[in-house]
Design a protein that fits this description.
By secondary structure, this protein is of the alpha+beta class. It has helices spanning 3-35, 39-43, 47-73, 75-82, 85-112, 120-158, 224-228, 243-249, 260-273, 285-294, 328-336, 343-360, 363-368, 370-380, 390-401, 422-438, 446-453, 457-465, and strands at residues 171-179, 192-199, 205-210, 279-284, 298-302, 306-309, 315-319, 322-326, 381-383, 405-409. 34% of the residues are buried.
């Protein structure tokens, strides 16, 4: 072989080695930017930009570590930050700036890799890789900023009250109502009414179920409703679920009151149960369906086929018996259907739905579906719970997931709903709360759950409506 040939071959080999070295250097700069933003600039001489970026990155890591430590040692602080409009605004702005800055650092790392000096194949690989890194990192941060905006909007829309109500006798009592103000309805008559009485220290919860057809509900002395109905809500066809509509139709009697219907309903339930209501939460049933779909359904034991429709409309199908994951429509009809059973069976099913959602909604599910949950919740939920108290109730909700949920229902045979003994009602509520505070139900309840699954709906409903542990009977 001639000297010229040897020289050409050596030149080609050196060129190939040089191209590989340049490609590895360009690749390394991009990967360095992924792992430690600014490090590529530091090693390539752009020390001012590199130092600033690395310092910001270290500050971010320290902040994340502190948040994780707080989440482990003091979840309340994290909940407070997560529901603070000021913190969310600052975090949203910071995350947006970080996303834009990281994208610019990737572009600069691509430039420092001298892409025009690379071979065509290497240049295409580096361009694609750098673009992908920009999209993944900056896109993730921009999406996080979007979720913070969704959170801010949701809290501003739903939790607009600024009136804080302190725990009464160590308990928060929250009135839970399910209503449907859709087509064919005049006003809003709640289909379901319950009080969640929550221990302010342990989160242990007692659900007090109140039938919508409870008659002659009393009102506290000195209230507008007591002046109108001194012997209880005893007008023709007037039951507990009609208090809201009556008060809304007579707003002139409630000067200066923003929600006379809800105010009157809370007063009636306070007088009937002896519990002071701290807050209320009204769930519109149409929004409830979309909420269940947003979280991927809820796993429930259906003891027997439950009709979909009926009561003035044709039955269009059935929620089939069995233990399975129900979608939004199935869960809604499981909770509200009464064509084949009575109101008391429906109350039992509603408690089972609430218990199932409390146990099954975990932080991961909420985090991955936050936008859909927020959208459906804005349609579904109205409440007077102030935003400043969200951290308290989020902490209690997590504690409640690990605690037994007890139940007491104001239903026959214990209470004649058309001629109720309200002294007895209050004694039943007091006894259940005292039992909940003094002792914990033993065992996981699986054997009892199996026995009840084989019982007819009426017997099962009675067990659900008066249980020390809902998870053992639902």
């Amino acid at each position: 072989m001639s000297t010229a040939t040897w020289t050409a071959a050596g030149h080609d080999s050196c060129a190939a080695d040089s191209a590989r070295v340049m490609f590895r250097r360009a690749l390394t700069l991009v990967l360095m930017t992924l792992l430690v933003p600014g490090s590529a600039q530091l090693v390539m001489g752009s020390t001012r930009v590199g130092r600033l970026a690395v310092r910001i990155w270290l500050a971010v890591l320290v902040s994340v570590a502190l948040l994780m430590a707080m989440a482990f040692f003091n979840r309340g602080t994290v909940f407070t930050l997560a529901t603070s409009p000021t913190f969310l605004w600052v975090a949203r702005a910071g995350v947006t700036i970080l996303g834009a800055g990281w994208a610019l650092l990737f572009l600069d790392a691509w430039r420092l890799g001298s892409p025009l000096d690379l071979r065509r194949t290497h240049r295409l690989v580096m361009t694609g890789l750098s673009s992908a890194m920009c999209v993944v990192t900056a896109g993730s941060l921009f999406f996080s900023a979007h979720l913070m905006a969704v959170q801010q909007d949701f809290m501003a829309t739903v939790f607009g009250s600024n009136v804080v109500s302190l725990a009464d006798a160590g308990r928060y009592n929250v009135l839970l109502l399910g209503g449907d103000s859709g087509d064919g309805r005049v006003g809003l008559r709640p289909d379901s009414l319950s009080v969640a009485s929550i221990d302010a220290e342990t989160g242990r919860t007692v659900l007090v179920g109140l039938p919508r057809n409870l008659a002659d509900v009393p009102f506290p002395e000195g209230s507008v409703m007591h002046e109108q109905f001194p012997h209880g809500f005893d007008c023709e066809g007037c039951y507990l679920n009609g208090v809201n509509t009556w008060a809304e139709d007579h707003k002139e009697l409630f000067p200066g009151v923003n929600e006379p219907g809800m105010t009157a309903t809370k007063q009636a339930i306070e007088e009937a149960t002896g519990l002071r209501i701290n807050y209320y939460a009204m769930v519109n049933l149409a929004g409830f369906e979309s909420l269940v779909d947003a979280v991927g359904g809820v796993r429930i034991h259906v003891p027997e086929d439950v009709p979909i429709g009926g009561i003035g409309a044709p039955v269009t199908g059935y929620v089939k018996a069995g233990t399975r994951v129900l979608d939004g429509k199935e869960t809604l009809w499981f909770a509200r259907s009464r064509v084949a059973n009575n109101d008391y069976s429906r109350m039992a099913r509603q408690k089972c739905v609430m218990s199932a959602m409390l146990q099954q909604l975990d932080p991961r599910t909420v985090a991955f579906n936050v936008q859909q949950i927020a959208a459906s919740s804005k349609q579904m939920l109205s409440t007077d719970l102030p935003r400043s108290e969200l951290d308290t109730f989020m902490e209690l909700a997590l504690q409640a997931r690990a605690a037994k949920v007890s139940a007491v229902s104001i239903v026959p045979p214990a209470i004649d709903t058309y001629d109720p003994d309200y002294d007895k009602v209050r004694r039943m509520v007091d006894k259940t709360i005292a039992r909940s505070e003094s002792s914990a139900a033993a065992g996981d309840g699986s054997a009892r759950r199996k026995r009840l699954a084989a019982k007819p709906d009426k017997a099962r409903a009675a067990a659900v409506n008066a249980t020390k542990d809902l998870s053992s009977v639902c």
